[in-house]
Structure formats: structure tokens, C-alpha cells
Amino acid sequence: MRIAVNARTLAYPSGGPKEYLLSLMRAMLDLDAGHDFTLFYSDPKDVGTFPEAEEIVLPTANRLAFDWLALPLTLRRRRFDAAFFPSSNMPPGIPCPAVVAMLDLGYFHPTLSMYRAADTCYMKFAIRYSARRAERLVAISDYTRRDVLRLTRARSEHVAVTHLACDPMYKAPVTDDALARFRSDRDLPQDFILYSGNVSPRKNLPVLLAAYARLADRTSCDLVLTGGLAWNEDFSSLTRQLGLNSRVHRLGHVPREHMPLLYRCAKALAFPSLFEGFGLPILEAQACGTPVVCANATALPEVAGRGALLVDPASIDAWTQALAQVLADDALRRTLITEGHANEARFTWERTARQTLASLEAAAGGEKTCLRRPGA
């Protein structure tokens, strides 16, 4: 089967959609299932990411021009059995059966102010269109699948759940010397609570900052945050108002190959999001042996299992208490680390790759391909 993949999200500096596509494509290629993949990039620097596949650059920086014009035109000139769209939407004019990955439907929850108005209007239209037009949908969590069925006209039997998983690099051993060098190179504090993600309203960082402000005088741990600089002004203003300028460290974008080191340096991961379609940093931290405190909201309990301390996302008191507890209680930390490893092991990219290929095969109308490795 010949499969086209919209790989425009690889041009993003970081974020969940990019991580999803990188890990899923690597797993699907490693299955060696006999399918031929063609990846369409918007940036020439991405060529070579998957040398086993055909890689084509459509040099169009504007995402709408890439999705709505360049890619459909190219697909009409070539024959593909199916096309895969990994970012919750597909454009009109796709000439072959399509599978769309639904990452989350946060655009339909306006009270959370998660996205800018123009993006929200576009994506609400695009998601509803994709749910009607695509032959199959894959949702990255049970929560997201329920949202898809509730908010679109997708048919239940056409929506499969394909959970995400942790990249194997997070499980690789790391030496104490490597951690010490990384800490020094990044000028990290000796002890810190980590937030991993972008800085945006959906991430609920004001509650985390307010809780940390109550805790700061009682702990030597600073607060370290990753993520792009969008929504920067409100965040910086709030940090100053709380008197936390010297205790809060913003790293900006951290290369993905450095993230296992960052997790292992941290005393705990704090993940207070109001809304997540999955919540991959939870599994990444668990794989690295970092205790997790996360919000008891949307898909996060589904992902965290018993390997995290779950907290009401709206309660500053609850967050203050939970962070203090996970920093001070060694028995709790050991339990969270043990349960976190066991929980993270439930999710594998191999399983997700098999499930995604099954949806692509169903969309194309072909018979189920045997995905077992030779000799397995």
C-alpha cells in the first residue's frame, strides 16, 4: 500500500504534534509491514529524517497554502492508496481515502481561552469537515474519542483509539557525569520542580505559580519551565506580581534529545493543564523516574494511571499541598516512581503503529496486512 503523509508539523520547533509524528512514523517504518510511505515536508531541512521513506519538499511556508493548495495538487498528480493527516484536520480536495489523527478538540471549549480567535474559527470548521470526510479517524485517548463523537458527526465505528507512548530515548540510561554537565551547561538550580510544555492559557500556569509562591519560602526548590515564548507578557507580569522573578527559570525551547536529562535533574514534574488530549510529558517523566503531580482533568487521569498525584486543577490550596508533599515525603516519591514506571510501560509505539496502520488499511479498503516481523 502506498501511503502519503502530511509531515508539515515537523517544521515546528517543538510541541506535541511534532513529537507524535516523529515517534509514530519511526514505529510504523520499523514494523517493516511492506507499505511504501511518502512524506511531504514544508522545510528542506527535514529531508533525511526518515531515509527509508520517500521524502518530498513542497516549499510553502504558509500552512494554509501548504495544506489547501500544494499538497492536494501534488496528491492528484500521483497515485496513493491512503493519506494520513496527523494534526486533527485535512483539507478539501484530497483524492484518496484519508485517515485523520484527532489530537484534541480544545477549540470547542471556548471558556478555557486555549487558542487565539482566528485559529479557533478555522480549526472548528476543519475538524468538523475532517470528521465527515475522512474514511477513518484515530483519537489519541479515550477522552478525545468521546469528544470527537460528542462534538462532530463522526461515526462511532470509524473512530479508533491509538494512545501515544514514550519515545525509547527517555528509557536509555544516563550517567551522573552527563547529568552534572547538563545542569552546569543550562545553569540549572540544584533542586527544582519542572513544568514541561508551552506557555499558554490552557496550561493553567497561573495556578501553578500561585501555589509555588505559597511554597517558595518553605523549600529550596526553584520552578523551571520549558516552552515557547507565546503568551509571554501575561506570564512575566504574573511572575513579577508574585515576587518570583529570582525563583522561576524559563528555558524556552529545549531540544528533544536533551529532555531526558532535564526530567532526570528535576525533583518532580508539575503538570496543571486544564485540558489535554493526552499529556505526553507525564509518560516521559515517569519513564525517567521523576515523580509526577498532575491535574485531575480531561485525558490526564487516563494517561497517568496510578503513577501520579492527581490534583484539582482549579485549587491553589490543593496544588500547594501536593507539591509540598511530593517534595518532602520520600515514601510517596518512591511509590510514584515505581507506579510511574509500571504505568508508562502500558503504552508502546509499536502497538500504536499497528493500530494506525490498521485504520489506514481499512480506509483504503484493502485486506488486513500481517504486521508480524519475519520469524516473530
Automatic annotation (TrEMBL):
Domain of life: Bacteria
Membrane spanning stretches: none
Molecular function terms, GO-annotated: glycosyltransferase activity
A Pfam entry, by short name: Glycos_transf_1
Keywords: Transferase
InterPro entries: Glyco_trans_1
Name of the protein in question: Glycosyltransferase
GO annotation, biological process: lipopolysaccharide biosynthetic process
Domain named Glycosyl transferase family: residues: 181-340
